[in-house]
Design a protein that fits this description.
The chain has 159 residues and is α+β, with helices and mostly antiparallel strands. It has three helices and seven strands. A hairpin with a 2-residue loop joins β6 and β7. The two termini are 15 Å apart.
Length: 159
């Protein structure tokens, strides 16, 4: 996917079109609108704009819309996936673990999530990231996630 494009250097921003070239996710499950800066294999800052038209708000909750916490985690995992993909990982990464995740306040339509994913450890096909989501500079979620590169953990080297 990334081989036909110029290499991405530290601090590079990525449009939504470029994110779709990197990640296999599509609407409504592509939860990154843009990446403001990325250093392949190290970390990134991204943005997810929360719109009232997203399908989960029809049932979560009809009278007081709240973005499900698992989708906040997924958005942070997708950002971590971009970090790994640009560093040469396989075409897809899997969320393999969530630790010490805390939610500080609900995320509602109209919020803009500013996401961070910083790689803290890795090896043998697994990478750990310290992640956070902020709205208006305030932390709304933070914790640690693990992303698996199935191409690196598979005996055949294939997904």
């Amino acid at each position: 996917m990334t081989a036909t494009r110029e290499p991405v250097g530290a601090g590079t921003s990525l449009s939504n079109d470029r994110i779709r070239e990197i990640l296999p996710h599509r609407w409504p499950f592509l939860l990154l609108d843009r990446v403001e800066k990325v250093e392949p294999g190290v970390g990134a800052v991204g943005v997810k704009n929360v719109a009232a038209t997203e399908p989960w708000f029809q049932g979560h909750f009809p009278t007081a819309a709240v973005l499900p916490g698992v989708l906040v985690i997924e958005a942070m995992a997708q950002l971590a996936g971009v970090v790994l993909a640009l560093a040469g990982a396989g075409p897809i990464g899997y969320l393999a673990g969530v630790r010490s995740m805390r939610f500080r306040r609900p995320v509602v339509p109209g919020d803009q999530l500013v996401l961070t994913a910083d790689r803290t450890a890795g090896g043998r096909g697994f990478s750990e990231f310290k992640v956070s989501a902020r709205v208006g500079g305030q932390v709304v979620a933070e914790g640690t996630i693990t992303i698996a590169d199935p191409a690196a953990t598979s005996p055949t080297g294939k997904v």
